[in-house]
UniProtKB/TrEMBL annotation:
UniProt keyword Nucleus present: no
Species name: Streptomyces fructofermentans
Residue stretches of biased makeup (Basic residues): 1-10
Keyword Membrane among record annotations: yes
Region of interest called Disordered, as start-end residue ranges on this chain: 1-23
Transmembrane segments: 34-51, 57-81
Protein's recorded name: DUF3099 domain-containing protein
Swiss-Prot/TrEMBL keywords: Membrane, Transmembrane, Transmembrane helix
Amino acid sequence: MSTIPRRRAAPRPESITQARTGLSRDVRGRQRRYLVAMLVRTACVVVMAATWNRWPVLGACALVGAVVIPYVAVVVAQAGWRQQRGARHALVRLPDEQPAARVVLEPTLILPPEHNSAA
């Protein structure tokens, strides 16, 4: 058995397990999930067309699947990024204080300076 020396001199990179996945990777994953859902919907339409006359219950179930799957696929695709944000911190409420006294501002008319033309 040969022994290979391990490098321990270099510092190990820090782990950032709380970080979100990159936006491009997230979008790619959502596109794949949406594509799979649309393929299943296409299969439902084919099954519905093939079984409508012979097995109407199966055709009706396939029709329901073909109608419901697009809605579910869009909701799942749009919810991906928000789920990875993590828990929101609770808002800190300040103790109730008396509101500051209101100051009533009176309208003021500002006139242009008078020019003395009697020179």
